[in-house]
User: What shape does this take?
Amino acid sequence: MRANGRAFSAEMAVSKAKVNRRWVYIVCLRDTSERKSAEVAVRDSEARYRTLVEHAPEIIVVFESRSNDV
Assistant: This one.
């Protein structure tokens, strides 16, 4: 939970290490909210593109033009 009480998506990694003859646990918590949002946006975009291509009444040609001026 965030400080404001809202839940968020996270991943956690835990490792055990010996420090000064004592075992300690190292916990790394990473907020993955932005990554999850980006994944949803990509899936939505792919679905829209797939629908457009599958239902297009004409031929669609996609090409990339590269300039040597850069």
